[in-house]
Specification:
Blueprint (H helix, E strand, L loop, with lengths): L2 H8 L12 H10 L7 H22 L8 H19 L10 H8 L5 H5 L1 H27 L3 E2 L1 H9 L5 H11 L2 E2 L4 H16 L18 E2 L6 E11 L4 E2 L1 E2 L4 E6 L1 E2 L13 E4 L4 E10 L2 E10 L2 E2 L2 E6 L1 H24 L6 E7 L2 E7 L6 H16 L4 E7 H6 L13 E7 L3 E4 L14 E10 L2 E8 H22 L6 H35 L3 E3 L2 E9 L3 H15 L3 E8 L2 E8 L1 H5 L4 H12 L1 E6 L2 E6 L6 H14 L1
Parallel strand pairs: 1-2, 3-8, 22-23
Antiparallel strand pairs: 4-5, 4-7, 4-13, 6-12, 7-11, 9-10, 9-13, 10-11, 14-15, 15-20, 16-17, 17-18, 19-20, 21-22, 23-24, 24-26, 25-26
Length: 637
């Protein structure tokens, strides 16, 4: 029997949602949304909102953030289901985040972490709600306009438009729209299979079951970059065990002990050579399967057999990887210092003197914040702080306050990297001895990769120095072209931009004067159809903004009119379909006209009831007569 069920019996309640740790939340939802628990449907919706909100709160507190992958996707779905239910109870505003404070109070004694992290949890949930509500409204509007949605259309909404299926389903149930599920699952499975095939990498030999790896390899690369090792297994390109790899052959090699670091934790593999008295094997990639470290590469000369070899890691590559990996720790410390303790690593890729770092945050970083991050990290580098590496028991390491990432799996013994008094993390990667060995840190870009997840790409060491020198050279060249000192290049560019804007305005004004002089001729194309003003006109080389100007001018002249204006603009044909407010109120909305006849007229665009803009995918020949015919049909409904 579950704990909550037991509590409901002991507290003599008929439902889990009536016990002391849940009923206050139920009451809060009921009162806030003015949803009286008078029927089973409303009761079910309220209970689900409480349950999903609590689950999301605990998950985020445990470091599982909403995302498009793995457990993060489950959290995202939980939040979206709760938002769906809030929407069905009549609220269109973010609401779920308001329950976090209540849960932090209700769970304060057994789960103090909720209270300590509630600001971070609130920001994450609210950000998800704000992103999802407009999507939900679009889903609701689309589904409400349909009596039936076929499987192909359903898949299009899910796969191309990105509408969550559960939202389509909930909206369909509410509006009475019939969803044709037959065929949808097949289309979804086919898409998943295409994605799976696309994501398969060449080294599919490491897929479970293709080759059985039971050997235990010892990694000794933290302490040395070269070792005498025994080859204990060789596998050729056909995935067969062999006694020797011949000159020019590609294959896999397993050693009893190795200094080569296998790709792990975002850090790319070591490269290097494995030598015998007469053979050279170039190591291109290193993987780990269970306890086996596998070296993938090619014999450059000689024949390699199961013998004693000298395994040598490329020292320059290892140093460059270690510079980048140590810099990720400094960056995380700087992010948490400048942006807040809600920052948590969500993934990374560590390459030679460059890396990308994904982290939780809710908005783009400002120029000032990026500058502060660079200053902070470079400050840590100049301090020449020691990078301390320790192997501790898992529980002991946790008690030291070391940051751990919940998506990673940890053994009983873990490696902890400590730097100064500002960074302490679980990490099995390779690192420097002093932060000063990083040299320089430079942020290349900052961007969003999903809701609430940002990405920083940065360079260090040689790559950072090279990039800074390149920027300096570009700045000097720009200053030379502008005939000014490098430090005033932004001011000189600003002045040129102002002059360019003024010229563009002058040209635009001149064009509008020319167009205005031709309005009288354009008005001659007006026709009266069923007592309504209709005007279709084809221009040559008019840009979209001028078409809008012509449309507005004609509407002012005629008072009431239905317009279709087309033009060739550059290498494409464009159009504007516009009408006056009085015609739109007579159900002559141009967005409905374009939607209805888009195939017949080869139109692609969107807008509002009084104005639609877009491109014409077909020819302009005979287009105006076709538009007129379609307008007549439109009037007949």
């Amino acid at each position: 029997m579950g704990l909550e069920r037991m509590a409901s019996i002991l507290q003599q309640k008929t439902s889990n949602f009536e016990i002391d740790i849940l009923y206050p939340a139920v009451q809060f939802v009921e009162e806030s949304l003015k949803a009286e628990r008078k029927n089973p449907q409303v009761i079910s919706l309220i209970n689900a909102i409480v349950d999903h909100s609590r689950a999301a709160t605990f998950a985020i507190a445990d470091g599982v953030y909403p995302s498009n992958e793995a457990r993060g996707y489950v959290v995202r779905k939980i939040i979206r289901k709760a938002v769906n239910n809030v929407n069905l109870l009549g609220s269109k505003e973010p609401f779920i985040y308001k329950l976090v404070n209540l849960f932090s109070e209700l769970m304060l004694e057994p789960y103090p972490d909720i209270s300590a992290k509630k600001d971070n949890i609130i920001k994450n949930i609210k950000a998800e709600e704000e992103k999802f509500i407009p999507i939900l409204e679009e889903v609701d509007e689309y589904v409400a306009s349909k009596k039936k949605i076929e499987a192909e259309e359903l898949f299009y909404l899910y796969d191309t438009k990105g509408f969550p299926f559960e939202s389509i389903e909930a909206s369909a149930a509410y509006h009475g729209t019939f969803l044709v599920r037959d065929g949808f699952d097949k289309l979804l499975k086919e898409q998943q299979e295409r994605s799976r095939k696309k994501s398969m990498f060449d080294a599919d030999i490491f897929k479970k079951g293709e080759i059985d790896f039971k050997e235990k390899s010892e990694f000794i690369g933290y302490d040395c970059l070269e070792s005498k090792s025994q080859v204990i297994r060789l596998i050729d390109g056909s995935k067969h065990d062999i006694d020797s790899l011949k000159d020019g052959a590609e294959g896999l090699l397993i050693l009893d002990k190795t200094p080569f670091y296998a790709e792990s934790g975002g850090q790319l593999t070591d490269k290097g050579t494995i030598l015998t008295t007469d053979a050279v094997f170039r190591v291109e990639e290193v993987f780990k399967v269970n306890e086996t470290i596998i070296h993938k590469g090619k014999v450059l000369s000689g024949n390699l057999s199961k013998e004693i070899v000298t395994a040598s890691v490329d020292k320059n590559r290892r140093k460059a990887l270690s510079r980048a990996h140590t810099a990720t720790h400094l960056l995380q410390a700087a992010l948490r210092k400048i942006l807040g303790a809600h920052v948590a690593q969500q993934g990374s890729l560590v390459d030679e003197d460059r890396f990308r770092f994904d982290f939780t945050h809710f908005k783009a970083l400002s120029t000032e914040e990026i500058e502060r991050l660079e200053d902070c990290v470079n400050g840590y580098i100049l301090n020449a702080d020691k990078v301390i590496k320790e192997e501790l028991g898992f529980e002991e390491a946790k008690q030291t306050g070391a940051l751990a990432f919940f998506k990673d799996k940890y053994k009983d013994k873990v490696r902890v990297i400590s730097i100064g008094n500002y960074s302490k993390e679980f990490c099995g990667g390779t690192h420097l001895d002093l932060t000063s060995e990083i040299g320089i840190f430079f942020i290349v870009s900052e961007s969003s990769i999903s809701s609430g997840i940002r990405r920083i790409e940065a360079v260090v060491g040689d790559k950072a120095y090279t990039r800074i020198k390149k920027i300096e050279k570009t700045l000097i060249e720009a200053a030379s072209m502008l005939k000014c000192a490098p430090e005033v290049v932004p001011d000189a560019i600003g002045q040129l931009q102002a002059e360019l804007r003024a010229l563009k305005e002058e040209i635009k004004h001149s064009n509008k004067e020319k167009i205005s002089s031709k309005i009288t001729d354009i008005l001659k194309a007006k026709k009266e159809i069923n007592g309504l003003n209709f005007l279709a006109y084809n221009f040559k080389d008019i840009d979209p903004s001028d078409l809008v100007f012509i449309s507005d001018t004609i509407k002012k002249e005629l008072g009431s009119v239905f317009l279709f204006l087309a033009s060739q603009s550059g290498d494409k044909n464009i159009f504007i379909c516009s009408t006056t407010e009085d015609y739109a109120k007579k159900q002559l909305e141009v967005n409905k006209f374009v939607s209805r006849f888009k195939e017949e007229l080869s139109l692609k665009g969107g807008g509002r009831p009084t104005l639609v803009q877009g491109v014409i995918t077909g020819t302009l020949e005979n287009l105006l007569s076709k538009v007129e015919d379609c307008f007549v049909k439109f009037l007949q409904k």
